[in-house]
Structures are given as C-alpha cells and as structure tokens.
Amino acid sequence: MNILIVDDEALARSRLRTLLADIAPPGLPHQLSEAATAADALALLAPTSGRAFDVVLLDIHMPGQDGLGLAHTLQTLAYPPALVFVTAHTEHAVSAFELDAVDYLTKPVRRERLQQALAKAQRASATQPAAPAPHDGEVLLIQDRGRTERLPLAQVLYFKAEQKYVTVRTAARSYILDASLNELEARHAPHFLRIHRNALVAQRAVRALEKHYDPEEGEGWAVRLQGLGELLAVSRRQVAAVREALTR
C-alpha cells in the first residue's frame, strides 16, 4: 500500500514506520511518505504532485491546521485516500468518524490494531473507482494580494457569483476570481452543476438536498456539500438536476 504518515512528532512517525515494516506482506513492503504539517501533506496530495496514496495515517494535534481540518480538505479530493486517525487523544473519535475515517487509533499504537486499520482501509479503497478524476491536474490561477497561486480544481467545492467577481470556495478557505460564472460553467460543465443563477457546485461534493428557509426567497431547497458546514440555496428549476446528481 502507498501510505502517507502525517504527524508533527518525528518519534511518532518513526514508530509508525517500524510497525508498518513489521506488518508488510513478505516481499511487498509498503510505500511510505511523511509530512510534519497539514501544508506539507497537501503538497504531497495535490494532483500536480503525481503521487496517489491509498491511506493517510493522520495525527490530530499539530501546529497550524490540525488533523480534523486536513481531513475536511481531503474529503474534497476527487478520489480521497482512506483515512486513519492516530492520536493520543480519545475525545475526537466522534468527529473523526463523522469525517468518514475508517479507524481511530490511540497512541501508543499496537501492531495488531494498526494491521486491522490497514485491512479496513484496503476494503474501503476497494469500493472506490480506481480511475483518475477527469479534471485531475487542472488548476485555476488565482491572483491573491499581489501573488499568483495555482489552485487545483479538484479542491474547489463551489463557485458563487458576488457582484463583479466570483468566490471560489474550498474546504480550507475562500478565494476571489476575476471571471464570469457562465464562463466557468462552460469550461467545467462535466464536473460542476448549476444549482442557482449565482452558484455552481462540484458534483462529487454534493451530499444531500434539504428543505431550507431563506430569508430572501422563503421556503425552498438547499444542498449540503461534503467538508462544508454552510448550505447553498437551490433554485426550484434546478432541484430535479440536483436530485439526479445525487443518484450518480
């Protein structure tokens, strides 16, 4: 298996490397990579990195973005790796499983429990399509405070028109893009769905269609996206299209 270990403690990463070497099938060692921060992990997980991981072993308490925040971001990937939390803290178990983690291990990790977790991760990966997402490798060029940033399209949850610009939302943050929603819809139609005159959402991220009351538009419908707390209003004419997207 191709495994990414994410932990800010070098000793903890070393311990996991040793255990993984012990439980690897004879002649088939696991391919291991490491990251000490969420930012380092995202760089390895970006579509442009050329690396694909079967499972991420993820600590929770880390400097900068914590493991739960990183897990939210991982959910926005077109083909997210299986996620196993490895932490000294037991109080985050509920939050971890709400993020579709396949297992939750507490430190010090026992060999048998790690082996069980990898078996669960392997079963979870087997249910996922193996082909790369059609837009893997595509990026948006974002101008942000005097710098140009490459944002992988696979991380985008929605585009929303806001007066003279478009808000681009990922699980981690928002960006401003100088573009029109119609232009973005035409360019990325296979992967983004129009839900309202002012919004496009990533089809892969749509998790639920819910009844919703909007102060301006009254009672209606809204979508819930994976990895995002806010709801986005759905116009009446687009409700059928959203329901169809949920069945794909």
From TrEMBL:
All copies of domain Response regulatory, residue ranges: 2-122
PTM-bearing positions, type 4-aspartylphosphate: D59
Classification via SUPFAM superfamilies: CheY-like
InterPro entries: CheY-like_superfamily, LytR-like, LytTR_DNA-bd_dom, Sig_transdc_resp-reg_receiver
Listed GO MF terms: DNA binding; phosphorelay response regulator activity
Protein name from the UniProt record: LytTR family two component transcriptional regulator
Keywords: Phosphoprotein
Domain HTH LytTR-type positions: 140-248
